[in-house]
Amino acid sequence: MFQSSSLSGTKAEQYAQLLEQARGLMHGERDRVANAANLSSLVFHALPDLNWVGFYFYDGTELVVGPFQGHPACVRIALGRGVCGTAAQTRETQRVADVDAFPGHIPCDSASRSELVVPLYAGERLVGVFDLDSPVLDRFDAEDQAGLEAIAHAFIQALDAA
Asked: What is the C-alpha separation between 7 and 44, in angstroms, rounded?
């Protein structure tokens, strides 16, 4: 049975611990919904100042909401639209200090002030995005981005392993 533990040390050390927990949680499991559900919960409960953590999966046309923690979310997002659609289309992580200043931001939760979205690609194939929202302006920094990109990479690796 998996058991999470409290994170300690520097931010980089905490992300290393969280990555280890994420890998343990997904070990031997290839199902993307199961892994996305558990990762959403793990990250939501481990990191401070988050109001939404989850996944949107690409269905061949658009992004469709997958497992998440937080208030109900937008169901479908077009590629290139909002922070999630931009991350998926550009293949680049979007770290947004103030969502109100992001052109075309989709306000699914009015409490969200900042956002970080990591695109999920398996080779050239778009899988979806890993999305985190915070009610705090400028919540995410470069260390958060690196740590969350590593967790997203582990998610993609788990789909091909087992």
From this structure: 13
